[in-house]
């Protein structure tokens, strides 16, 4: 198997996995610091998905750090298949959670803007009456 940059067990793969872990932690931190994220199921799903992404990336970062130290090659077909399936699952969950959260955010903002416009329209109408 060829040694592509970013494959498991390479020195380039380590910063990629660490950056995945950091960005997942940042996503969790930004959602958890909002006062009412738990009121929406999609935001809770995003927290759970990013938690899984962070754990998966951290474990693979440990493997990426361990392999060069011990001069191990992580290109066994079974291991590579496990990495591919794990990355595919976490990527699909992350995409679904981000899309659902974005949809709820747009729905919330449109509803909020409509309520403000309705309130302004009613107050304007009452002024003329």
From TrEMBL:
Show the Pfam families listed in the entry. CASP_dom
GO cellular component labels: plasma membrane
Q: Where in the cell is it found?
A: Cell membrane
Which keywords does the record carry?
A: Cell membrane, Membrane, Transmembrane, Transmembrane helix
Specify where it is mainly localized.
Answer: membrane
Domain (Casparian strip membrane protein) ranges: 7-108
TM ranges: 12-31, 43-68, 88-117
- Matches recorded under InterPro entries: CASP_dom, CASPL-5
Highest rank taxon of the organism: Eukaryota
Topology in the lipid bilayer: Multi-pass membrane protein
PANTHER family from the xrefs? Answer: CASP-LIKE PROTEIN 5B3
UniProt similarity note = Belongs to the Casparian strip membrane proteins (CASP) family.
Question: How is the subunit organization of this protein annotated in UniProt?
Answer: Homodimer and heterodimers.
Q: What is this protein called?
A: CASP-like protein
